[in-house]
Every structure is written in C-alpha cells, then in structure tokens.
Design brief:
The protein is mostly helical and about 850 residues long. About 55% of the residues lie in helices and about 5% in strands. It comes from Hibiscus trionum (Flower of an hour). One of its GO terms (molecular function) is clathrin binding.
C-alpha cells in the first residue's frame, strides 16, 4: 500500500515550521535594525506580529530581545506598542535583559509624540526590576509635569506602581505631595481621579507607620476637598464618579443642612444611566441620613424608582446586582416597597438566580393588602418547569402564611398542593404544613384530614418524610391509622437511610405510645430495639435514652417526650441583625451580592498560605514583658477586615456518622438489641424488666453504663498524656512564616468557648495574656467583636519541636476553629488537648 499523500497546506504563520524559525526571525530583524529603506516599517510589522504570536502561544523568543530593542528605533506607534509588549513580558523573567531597554525607553519618554511618551513611561514603570528603580524616578517626575494629560495620567499610575515596588523611593522623591498638588489643580479630571486613587492607597498603607500620612489621609475627607470634588463631579468619568462618591460616604457633615446641600448637589446622579453611579449615589444618601430617621425613610422612597428602573432595563447580571441591593433595603423597610410588589414578579425568560431573589422579596413585602395577589402569583410558579424555582415558590407561600394573621386562603392553597400529583410539590407542602401546625394548632383538623390521605410510601425526601412522621406522632389521636403507619415504617427501619427520619420515627412512636398504648406497644419495642442497634450515634443514643426513661418512670418520660405544646410565635432568623447591619454598612459592594460581610470572603487565608508578613514584621516576639508583647502584637484597625474570618459552625448532616459503628461499653451490640427487643415486646416498657439471661444483663449493663445509673464498677479513666511547654521560647516572624508555609496541617478542630470566655474576649489582648500564662505565645492577632483571629506558637520542653496554631474565634457563635501545624506530628493530639484546656479556662476567676 503506498504511503498517504502529504498535505500541501502551508503552515500557519503563528506556528513555527521548524527549529530554525526563531533563528530566521533573528536574522531578519538584525537586517532591518539599521535600515531606513522605504517600506521597512511594514516589514518590521510583519516580523513583530510573528514574534508576538509566538510569545502568545508560549514559544520562548527571549533570544530576540536585543534585535527587538534595536528595531524599536522608529516613529511608528504600532511598532512601538508591540515592542513595549514584548519588552514588558520578558523583562520580568530576565532582569539582565531589561537593562538593554533603559536607554530606548528613556529616549521615548522624551519623544515629541505624547502617545509614545505615555506608552514608554507606562512600559518603564511596569518593568518591576529592582536595579532599574533609580532610572524610573526621573521620567516619572517629568511625566507628572508633562503638558499632555495622557502622559500625566500614566505618570500618576506609575507613581503608584513605584510605591508598590519600592515605597521608600517613592516617599523620598516626594511624589505624594506632587500628586496632591495635581489632584487639586489639574484641569483634566482623569488625572484628578488617578491622583485620588493613588493617594488613597499610598496614605492608607503609610498611615500605620507615619502620623503625617495619617493626617493626610484624614485630610482627603475634609470639607474643602470633598466640596471641590463634588463641584466637578459631572466632569468625571463613570469610574471616577464612583470613586468620588465612595469618598463622600466617609465624610461627616457638620449639620443636617449640609447633608441636604450634598444630596441636592447629587440629586441628578440618581438619573444616571450607569448602575454603578446610581448605587454609589444611593449609598451616599443612605449614609448621610442614618442619624435622621424620618429623612432616612424618605431616602428609601427617593432611590426606589431609579433602582427599579435599573432592574428592568439592564442585563440579567446587572439586574441581579441591583436586586441584591433592593433586597437589602426591602428587608430593612418592607412597608415602603409593599405597593411595588408587581415589580418583583418573575418573568419567564429570567435566570433562576434572579427569580430566586425576587421570590424572597415577594415574601418580605407581603402584607394584608397584597397577600392574596402575591400568593396567587406564587401558586402559578408551583407548576414551573424549573423545579428549584417551583420549590422556592411553595416555600414562599408557607413563609407568608407564617407571618400573616389571616391565613384562611393560604392554608387552602397549601392543602391543594398536597393533592397535586408531583412528588416535589407534595414534599415541600408537607414541610410547610408541619410548620403551619406548630404556629396555628387550630388548623389541625383541616390539615390532618388531607395529610391522612397521603401514603408514607409515596414520600421519598427525608425532610418531607420527617414532617409526615412528626404529624403522625403529634396527632395520632386524630389519625386513626397512625399506629399502623408508624409500625409499617418501623418494620422497614433498615431501608431508611436518613438519620433525621429515624430520629423522628423514634419520637413519633413514643408519642403515639402515650396516646394509644395497646396499638403501639409492638411498634415501640421494635423501634427501640432497632434504635439501640443503629450505627448512627444520635439515633443510638436517643433510643437508649428513651428506653432508660421508660425504665425509670413512665409519667416522667411522657412529660419529657410529649409535654403540652405551645404555639410557636416566631421562627428563628437564619441571619443575625448584626450581620445585616454590617452588610448595610458595605452597601454598593460584593458584600450585598454575597449577602455576607466582606471579612467572611476576603480573609487572607483564602489567598495563599500565611500571607500577612507585613503585620508580622512589626511584632516583637520572645521573652519580653507581657505589656510589650501585647502592644507589639496589635494589628492596624484598618486592616482588621482583611485579617478576620468568621468561624461558621458546620451543619452536621444526618449521614455524617454513618460510616462508623457505635460500640457500647461492656455491651455486645447484637445481644443488647435482641435483649431490649424481647423485653419491650413482652412488657409495655413501663417497668424494670425482670428477664434473666446473659444478653438481658448485658443490655441493662450497657444502658446503665451509658447514663451512669447504678453501674456496679467503673473503669478507671485513662491517664492523660503529659506535655510540658517551654515558657521562655522565642520565635522570629520570618521563621514562623517559613514554617507555616512548609508544614502540613496536623490537626483542624472546632471547640466551643465558655460563656465566661466569650464575655472576657472584648479585645485580643485579654486572650493573649491568658495563653501566655500557659506558655503559649501569640505572634499575630487582630479583629474586633464578634470575630478575632490569632496566631500562636509553643515549643516542647527540652526540645526544638514547635507547634504553630491558627485560632479563629467567633463570640456570637461561641466557637473557636483551631488549625495546628507541628514539627512533631505524633504529639499534635496531645498539644491540641493542652491548647483546648488552656482555652477552656479563659475567663475563669
């Protein structure tokens, strides 16, 4: 068979056809470097395009650096741009080659064409090479005085880049003062905006070490500067307007009349076509009137119309961002938006994330005057093809029912949901009916009549099944088949994978037993037996607890399991008011979109391992007196949000422990289960069993041991491991930082903090002193209530083995999250116990 014919297609100009391609380019560039022949610039363009395309796809063309620099001697702006792009890419990875660019870049900074001057200055300030900083100061100084606004604008950003790379050089050259002069006197608003942005960053960074910088930063929000910027705000670009408006939110007017003057000046910004400007202006209005309650509510009315317009006129992404801010306002003042509920109706072509937010807002604005219309609209969504939205709409109907006084029509709608032949609709409706009965017990007769027709076999979802079982136990007297339905569920115990359902089933059978003992006796015995043998810890413990209560006293057990119920007046809010206030303070930011304060998603631990050496550099460590240690370990209050995170308690799922079997002390699991089952079936489980036999004694012994009731002999507690720490340990910040990067995580746990500890933790210093008394020293700390973050270290006595600890404490949840890294991994558990012991003693007298 002959070989296949070779393709005649020519290679792509962006792909080298062989190893000599780069060498050919080098040869051609060298030939054109000194040529002044007509059309040479066009030839250079073609070669430059090839070089840039090779660089873009990852081919190393750094060997052409010299030839590219030589060919840059041209007045063609396009060639200059491509050359600057090439130089900027390879100068960072090859600092030695960057020296070749200094002469031609400095020359271009003096070019007659302002475009070339600006491009050259931008490229020069972007090199970021340590030994080239001295060559940047002169061109930057000249650029700040340039007659062209574009060059001045580039020079201002170049100053900021210089500060980020070499702060001392920037300060010594007195560039901040020049920027301030430009900000107040330059005629071009782009230059003014860039100066404002650069000065805010420079002075904020310098404020922690320089009182002069602190004064300058405070001067930015003084009345003359604020009024100067506001009077020119119409000249600024949209980005610059947002920058100025954000600065105005930090200004405190001297009286209410001054606040009104500022709002009158910014009134037309609410009609701006750009959503960012509208939101920034809204934030100014809200902040200025926080202390004037009546006017603050009027501001809600004023900004409502522009924001609703933005929702309906923008892209889905913009609509969601604006809706998120409207959602925040609606939650704070729902009555103001109650007449505009139709704006929150869902459109068929909207993304699900927009619909979900609108459903929450419809729930919030519902009141006596609009409930019927809103519930009718929500019921239409229940048949939506988007199942998650259908579920959310049913939940919204339930939430409205729980917050209204007249719920007749809503209850009828919910009961209609139960009759729909859709599993997910029935499941959501069951959960809502359960909550409805908890708040409105008077509706039990109507609800139970419908719920009684639902077969437990058709309900698959755990939460819905748990709700149905709860109703079977709570209203077993009204539901004639309740004992038999529960008995059938107990018989299929092994097939039920949800621990939540099994827990509800245990409680429901107990309740049913107290109301209808003869019919439920067998089911109760089987349920307790299955619960004792269950591999889930919570189910196992609850079954044993119920069994021991029945052994002790039936009337006591009934008072515990089935006490008289009181209607639930208010259901718990998932978000604290403090968190909501923090989100409101961060209006017009991602905090509103994420519905959480910024410190929850901008913590430095999410940007890499131990990335705050700037704080560590200013700390004094080691064997100093405690007063010095505490004061040295302060972190700038302005950086608290960057240092903090919130220790959010993880929700334990029902199947979290399914992988581990429970072994009761002194107890053979199968023997215990059979013993409890036999005892409970033969007697109504209301008196101590008298059955004999090894398995019966074993079960009783295991139960007694669990609850510590009459155990004949207790095993001695195992001796706790001993670990002594070096009280005089010293560790410098750089070593701590290096170890933190290198060592793996040995242990990560969550501890509860005692109420006394929570009360005592008003500032980081209190805990620092306490831990130091236990030979555990702090190297960095920060935060304010309710969130604090610490980095501790300790050293094993007579050893160089160190323990590094990150401790994040949230006083609102009373939990501490501990991450431990250790040189000696084998002793991490012991140190964790010691650390927890020291933490538990915090706040004790």
């Amino acid at each position: 068979m002959p070989p296949p014919a070779q393709s005649q297609r020519s290679p792509s100009p962006s792909q080298p056809s062989g190893k000599s391609e780069v060498s050919d380019l080098k040869f051609q560039l060298r030939q054109l470097a000194g040529s002044r022949a007509p059309g040479v610039d066009d030839s250079k363009r073609e070669l430059f395009k090839k070089v840039i395309s090779y660089m873009t796809i990852g081919i190393d063309v750094s060997s052409l650096f010299g030839e590219m620099v030589m060919c840059s001697a041209t007045s063609d702006v396009v060639l200059k741009k491509m050359c600057y792009l090439y130089v900027g890419n390879y100068a960072k990875v090859n600092p030695d080659l960057a020296l070749l660019t200094i002469n031609f870049l400095q020359k271009d900074c003096r070019d007659e064409d302002p475009m070339i001057r600006g491009l050259a200055l931008r490229s020069l300030s972007s090199l970021c090479v340590a030994n080239l900083v001295e060559y940047l100061v002169g061109p930057l100084g000249s650029g700040l005085k340039d007659g062209n606004a574009y060059v001045r604008m580039v020079a201002v950003i170049g100053v900021l880049k210089l500060y980020q790379f070499s702060a001392s050089t920037c300060i010594d050259a007195d560039f901040p003062s020049i920027l301030k002069h430009l900000m107040l006197n330059d005629s071009d608003t782009h230059v003014v905006a860039n100066c404002l942005s650069a000065l805010q960053e420079i002075w904020s960074a310098e404020a922690s070490t320089s009182e002069e910088a602190l004064r300058e930063r405070e001067a930015l929000i003084s009345k003359p500067i604020i009024y100067y910027l506001l009077n020119r705000i119409k000249e600024f670009s949209e980005w610059a307007q947002c920058l100025v408006l954000e600065l105005v939110t930090k200004y405190a007017p001297s009286d209410s009349s001054e606040a009104f003057d500022i709002m009158n000046l910014l009134e037309d910004r609410l009609q701006h076509a750009n959503g960012a400007v509208v939101l920034a202006t809204s934030k100014v209005f809200l902040q200025l009137t926080l202390s004037i309650t009546d006017v603050h509510h009027q501001v809600y009315e004023r900004i409502k119309a522009p924001m609703l317009t933005l929702v309906s006129s923008g892209s889905p992404e913009q609509s969601y961002a604006v809706l998120s801010h409207l959602h925040l306002l609606v939650m704070r003042a729902p009555y103001i938006f109650s007449s505009d509920y139709k704006h929150f109706y869902c459109h068929y072509n909207e993304p699900s994330y927009v619909k979900r937010l609108k459903l929450e807002m419809l729930t919030a604005v519902a009141n006596e005057s609009n409930t019927y219309e809103i519930v009718t609209e929500l019921c239409e969504y229940a048949a939506n093809v988007d199942i998650p939205i259908a579920r959310e709409s049913i939940r919204a109907v339930g939430k409205i029912a729980l917050q209204q006084y007249d719920v007749n029509a809503i209850v009828d709608r919910l009961l209609q949901f139960l009759e729909m032949e859709k599993d997910y609709v029935t499941a959501e409706a069951l959960v809502l009916v359960k909550d409805l009965l908890r708040k409105y017990p008077q509706w039990s007769q109507d609800c139970i009549a419908v719920v009684g027709n639902i077969s437990s076999k058709t309900v698959r979802e755990p939460k819905a099944k748990a709700a149905l079982i709860w109703m079977l136990g709570e209203y077993s007297q009204e539901m004639q088949d309740a004992p038999y339905v529960l008995e059938n569920l107990v018989e299929n115990w092994a097939e039920e994978h949800s621990a939540e359902v099994r827990l509800h089933l245990l409680t429901a059978v107990m309740k049913c037993f107290f109301k209808r003992p003869p019919e439920t006796q067998n089911a109760l015995g089987a349920a307790l037996a299955a619960g004792v043998a269950d591999f889930h810890q919570d189910v196992h413990d609850r079954a044993l607890f119920y069994y021991r209560m029945l052994q002790h006293n039936v009337s006591v057990a009934e008072r515990v399991v089935n006490p008289p119920k009181q209607a639930v007046s208010v259901f718990a809010d998932t978000q604290s008011s403090e968190i909501k206030d923090r989100i409101f303070d961060e209006f017009n930011s991602l905090s509103v979109v994420y519905q959480k304060p910024s410190y929850m998603f901008t913590d430095r631990e999410h940007r890499g391992t131990f990335e705050f050496s700037d704080e560590l550099g200013n700390l004094s460590i080691g064997g100093e007196v405690s007063e010095n240690v505490v004061s040295a370990q302060r972190v700038d209050e302005n950086d608290n949000h960057l240092l903090l995170t919130t220790s959010e308690k993880e929700e334990a799922s029902g199947s979290s422990n399914n992988g581990s079997a429970y072994v009761s002390p002194y107890d053979n699991s199968s023997a215990s289960a059979s013993a409890v089952a036999s005892q409970t079936r033969t007697e109504p489980a209301i008196s101590n069993p008298t059955a004999t036999g090894h398995s019966s004694q074993s079960a009783s012994l295991g139960i007694d041991d669990l609850l510590d009731l009459g155990l004949p002999a207790a095993l001695p507690a195992p001796a706790s491991p001993q670990l002594k720490l070096n009280a005089e340990v010293a560790l410098d910040p750089s070593t701590f930082q290096q170890k933190w990067r290198q060592l793996p995580v040995s242990l990560s746990q969550e501890y509860s903090v005692s109420p006394r500890g929570v009360a005592a933790l008003t500032a980081p210093q209190a805990l620092i002193r306490h831990m130091q008394s236990h030979s555990i020293h702090c190297i960095a700390s920060g935060g304010q209530s309710p969130s604090f973050k610490f980095f501790f270290f300790a050293q094993k006595m007579d050893s160089s083995s160190n323990y590094l600890v990150e401790c994040i404490i949230n006083t609102s949840s009373a939990f501490a999250r501990i991450t431990i890294k250790a040189d000696d991994q084998s002793t991490s558990e012991v140190f964790s116990t010691l650390f927890q012991s020291a933490l538990s003693k915090f706040g004790n007298p």
